[in-house]
From TrEMBL:
It is found in: Cell membrane. This is Sugar transporter. Residues 20-448 form the Major facilitator superfamily (MFS) profile domain. PROSITE patterns: MFS (PS50850), NA_GALACTOSIDE_SYMP (PS00872).
Length: 473
């Protein structure tokens, strides 16, 4: 479909009423900023905390991530099924209350991950497994409902893209502040281990405040009657419907690629700054410039999707990402070039991140159109199942590779170890970005033109649906 056809299809899809206020969008962004204050501590610093502070072998520490994230993936599916089939839905909505209920337990479990008792190595590993798996389960209870809300907030395609961009802006603000602010707090303490704990407490408190602000200022504009109690036959039919949703399957697989690449970069950049650049302040610079570049793509994404199909904007982002990382592998030998090439890579990644939530919302409509079964929570949790698998890979692969190349915590690294760190930082993500382009081009069929037809058909089937006035509760 050419740009003119895409533009016409997009305009048609935008005819659905706009139901989200600026206040709602800001609150949705702040909610994901809070999610990232709580979540990114594990992705950014926990592996390094395990290896350099707790003293766990790198392969064993990486295995903690593998096992915990696979557990989380199944937890997401369970939470999604539970949410979709809740029968006691209050005036607060189907999804919003989970932001209120889960915030405090989530913060406490995050702190527990960075306060490992002085046990034996075996005892420390047991603590790491239990604390991280409980944290992941609680995070699923908070995050699956949060991500499932977009289809209940608006039916307007462009407004969904805007909400996805606002969400990504909040996510990146959380990541930026975590990257900039965490290590200075750690380094200000005489004991680095204590510094980790204090820094985590600070971000945990901020995360709870952000999630509660989000809860108070977002709204589910589309509501439906509570479902009758689910039976095994209906549940089986819902899972079969997910497996028939080819756009959802494709989007989930490419997220396995892109999200593992993104999270692996977050994990490895600590080692890259410390051992290749020998400049720990580079991580704060990376937060300012690299994560800052994601805001550029987040602002550009809604503008580009007005003219071009979301699918092709997504692929364009991956192309930028791959080129920047290939160049970074060969030339990022000092702080300036490292930050420069990583910033361009994050610019490309920002397009994929900004559009993921709009695309998965489109997959909800596609699934209902195809099978007659609408299940926002299950679709979202199926999608996040693959994202959790990607996080498992992102935590496991560095630990295994670091052990394989002979990494020794706190020591001068061998040339082989340094090359392993460099390859993890750049080549892994470049290869997976290219794989994403290929898969999206050949397998993702939900274009704007097709989506417009699907929405029209669904509206005819539904006849009418209740829309509550936009605004906060």
């Amino acid at each position: 479909m050419d740009a003119t056809e895409t533009h016409a299809a997009t305009q048609k899809n935008d005819q659905a009423p706009r139901t989200v206020t600026l206040r709602n969008k800001i609150a949705y962004a702040v909610g994901d900023m809070g999610n990232n204050f709580l979540f990114d501590m594990g992705q950014l610093y926990l592996l390094n905390y395990f290896t350099d502070q707790v003293g766990l072998p790198s392969a064993a520490a990486g295995t903690v991530f593998l096992v915990a994230k696979i557990w989380d993936a199944f937890a997401d599916m369970g939470v999604g099924t539970w949410i979709d089939n809740r029968t006691n839905i209050s005036k607060r909505g189907k999804f919003r209350p989970f932001l209120l209920w889960a915030a405090i337990p989530l913060a406490m479990l995050l702190i527990a991950n960075f306060t490992t008792p002085n046990f034996s190595v075996t005892g420390k590993l047991i603590w790491a497994y239990v604390a991280y798996m409980l944290f992941g389960t609680c995070y699923s209870i908070s995050n699956v409902p949060f991500g499932s809300m977009i289809p209940t907030m608006t039916r307007n395609s462009q407004e969904r893209s805007e909400l996805a961009s606002w969400r990504q802006a909040g996510s990146n603000m959380g990541l930026m502040l975590a990257t900039i602010g965490f290590m200075p707090i750690v380094n200000s303490m005489t004991n680095e281990g204590t510094g980790y704990t204090i820094a985590v407490v600070v971000f945990a408190v901020l995360g709870v405040a952000a999630q509660w602000f989000s809860y108070a200022n977002i709204k589910e504009n589309y509501s439906s009657p509570a479902k009758a109690k689910i039976n095994k036959k209906d549940l089986k039919a819902s899972f079969k419907a997910l497996l028939k949703n080819k756009p959802l399957l494709t989007l989930s697989i490419v997220n396995l690629f892109t999200f593992s690449a993104f999270n692996l970069k977050l994990t490895v950049q600590v080692y890259y700054c410390k051992y290749i650049l020998q400049n720990t302040t580079a991580e704060s610079l990376l937060g300012v410039f690299s994560i800052g570049m994601v805001f550029v793509s987040v602002m550009l994404a809604p503008l580009l999707t007005k003219r071009f199909d979301k699918k092709y904007v997504y692929m364009m982002g991956c192309a930028i990402w791959a080129i920047a990382d290939i160049l970074g592998f060969f030339f990022a030998n000092n702080t300036f070039l490292f930050v420069f090439f990583t910033a361009i890579a994050y610019l490309g990644d920002g397009f994929t991140s900004a559009l993921n939530w709009a695309l998965v919302s489109d997959c909800v409509e596609y699934g209902e159109w195809q099978t007659g079964i609408r299940s926002e929570g299950m679709v979202y949790s199926f999608f996040t199942y693959f994202r959790k698998l990607s996080q498992a890979i992102a935590g496991f692969v560095p630990g295994i590779i670091l052990a394989w190349v002979g990494y020794v915590p706190g020591k001068t690294q061998t040339a082989t170890a340094l090359m392993g760190i460099r390859g993890l930082m750049f080549l892994y993500s470049a290869v997976l970005s290219i794989a994403t382009i290929i898969l999206m081009y050949y397998a993702y069929s939900l274009t704007e033109k097709r989506y417009g037809t699907i929405v029209s058909d669904l509206l005819k089937r539904r006849g009418s649906e209740r829309i509550e006035p936009a605004g906060g509760r």
